[in-house]
């Protein structure tokens, strides 16, 4: 018996990387899988092909599973709707959406082109909206369904040169939280994962010094896509009751992230003025403020 026996799962960006392993592992756990992949490059915006998605389908069917390829774009609402319709038409149902599809267009914010901002927002944030919106009413009507969306430590913690990506990934955190809250009474769950894994997207990040090169090599060897995919499949399983949470997967480590809550409060009976805020409130709160360190400063140890 597999964790997903009798279930239908849509996996976006499933031609390569984390999405590919999500599709293969979901199928191994008994799911019928819609393997979505546009077939384009890491930066997006180019013409794709069915090749990557079909290769994953072939691998699944060769192993005795059931899968079908889809090449629609998550960035287009009609594309997301077509994925859901294909699942319903081909397999007669849909129970989970796992959506790691994404692109990168990195650059310092003061040099960022409008196109690079909008493209990343369209694929990541609007793409997450499109696929969840396309499936949500079906899930609510059958009173069963779940979403596994993907955030990033670039948003949760921060990373220089990724303002567009970080903004999109933090937006996904808010989207998932509200879906989970609104879906609780209808048995509709939503969780997000911040993955640490060597993928095509990670490979595009410039390596500027020896320390960065060594860190990238450690990531390549110790943090694999299948480790992230196993977490995604676990969250998609009907036996999972977890919802509204943020996880990170880093090699063999799984982290539960906190979510924004007040960490320090101050009141002034006579009210605050700009000068008293500067002289009293902000200095008193300084010890509890989050520093500007990037992800490497929060996870400085070697992956396990």
UniProtKB/TrEMBL annotation:
InterPro entries with a match to the protein in the record: KR_dom, NAD(P)-bd_dom_sf, Peroxisomal_Beta-Oxidation, Sc_DH/Rdtase_CS, SDR_fam
Gene3D superfamilies, alphabetized: NAD(P)-binding Rossmann-like Domain (3.40.50.720)
Protein name: Short-chain dehydrogenase/reductase SDR
Domain Ketoreductase: start-end pairs: 7-201
The species this protein was found in: Tepidicaulis marinus
Domain of life the protein comes from: Bacteria
Family matches, as Pfam families: adh_short (PF00106)
